[in-house]
């Protein structure tokens, strides 16, 4: 928790970022005639439009002859929607928390997102947020968590691919265990990009969705599913990406704290 002046430190940090931004604007104004155009800065609030239509969800792959939670492959049709291009960052979540006097589920245990924020990782994905925390953030932004189906379409496209970039594993594409970082990286660092241009869908951190952990129609696994749990999607820096698939499903209790983050979605009609 932020105690004994911790909020003051955070506010100072935010002021520092604001002053730095102002300094950059002044410098640009002075040198824009002499210097080439600067690279476009990342808009961390950017959303991507995912068009309406059908896509392939799930997989018919078996695990040692047994069905997986992602079985079977099936077609799903979705209306158009928007999804955040990037995972929610530490700075975004901190801004939200300050503006809304938000603490979150982890404050009760003394183990939550605030313990992981530094000046150096302001634009890393926020982690150690619960499903409840993620839901509160998205609601405050006028958005919502994506459904599991929306998340998979945004990550996978319409051709049933295994990874956001295709069907073949490529080294150094996503922040998974193979990279060796063993921690979250600044969003957008890796070329882990879906067919729609959504970033960090395989690696970096697992992400909460709005969907309860229920079986797909035709799945006969016993003792696996529990509708009180919420679906998490994507792999992370502690998963082997080469052994993962974009259709993989996992789930946790909505108040569970771990290296989980989120991104938001909203209806295209809003």
Annotation keywords:
paralog of FGE (formylglycine-generating enzyme); four-stranded mixed sheet; globular; 11 strands; disordered N terminus; 270 residues; alpha+beta
Descriptive notes:
It contains 4 helices and 11 strands, in the order αββββββαααβββββ. The chain is of the alpha+beta class and 270 residues long. It has helices at 6-31, 90-100, 131-140, 148-156; strands at residues 47-50, 53-57, 62-63, 66-67, 74-78, 81-84, 206-213, 226-233, 250-252, 260-261, 265-267. Mean pLDDT is 88; it is low at 1-39. Helix content is 21%, strand content 17%. It has a 4-stranded mixed β-sheet. Strand 3 and strand 4 form a beta hairpin. It has 2 domains: 1-41, no CATH class; 46-267, paralog of FGE (formylglycine-generating enzyme) (Alpha-Beta Complex), CATH 3.90.1580.10.
In short:
With 270 residues, this protein is α+β, with helices and mostly antiparallel strands.
Order of helices and strands: HEEEEEEHHHEEEEE
How many structurally independent domains?
Answer: 2
CATH homologous superfamily descriptor of the largest domain: paralog of FGE (formylglycine-generating enzyme)
Tertiary shape: globular
Report the top-level CATH class of the largest domain: Alpha Beta
Strand order of the largest sheet: 9-8-7-10
Q: What is the first-to-last residue Cα distance?
A: 36 Å
- Main sheet summary: 4 strands, mixed
Secondary structure: helix percent: 10-25%
CATH topology of the largest domain: paralog of FGE (formylglycine-generating enzyme)
How many DSSP E strands?
A: 11
Mean pLDDT: 88
Low-confidence stretches: 1-39
């Amino acid at each position: 928790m932020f105690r004994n002046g911790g909020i003051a430190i955070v506010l100072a940090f935010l002021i520092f970022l604001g002053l730095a931004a102002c300094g950059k604007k002044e410098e640009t104004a002075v040198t824009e005639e002499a210097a080439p155009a600067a690279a476009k800065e990342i808009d961390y609030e950017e959303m991507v439009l995912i068009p309406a239509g059908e896509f392939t969800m799930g997989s018919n792959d078996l695990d040692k002859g047994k069905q997986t939670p992602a079985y079977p492959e099936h077609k799903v049709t979705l209306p158009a929607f928007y999804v955040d291009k990037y995972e929610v960052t530490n700075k975004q979540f901190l801004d939200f928390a300050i503006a809304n006097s938000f603490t979150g589920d982890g404050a009760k245990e003394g183990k939550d997102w605030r313990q992981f924020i530094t000046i150096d990782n302001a634009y890393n994905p926020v982690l150690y947020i619960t499903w409840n925390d993620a839901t509160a953030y998205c609601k405050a932004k006028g958005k919502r968590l994506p459904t599991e189906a929306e998340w998979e379409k945004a990550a996978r496209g319409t051709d049933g691919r295994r990874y956001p970039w295709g069907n073949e594993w490529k080294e150094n594409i996503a922040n998974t265990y193979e990279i060796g970082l063993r921690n979250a990286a600044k969003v957008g660092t890796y070329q882990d990009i879906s067919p729609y241009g959504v970033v960090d869908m395989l690696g970096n951190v697992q992400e909460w969705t709005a969907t309860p952990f229920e079986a797909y129609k035709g799945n006969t696994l016993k003792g696996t599913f529990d509708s009180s749990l919420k679906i998490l999607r994507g792999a992370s820096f502690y998963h082997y990406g080469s052994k993962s698939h974009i259709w993989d499903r996992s789930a946790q209790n909505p108040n569970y704290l771990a290296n989980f983050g989120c991104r938001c979605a909203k209806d295209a009609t809003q």
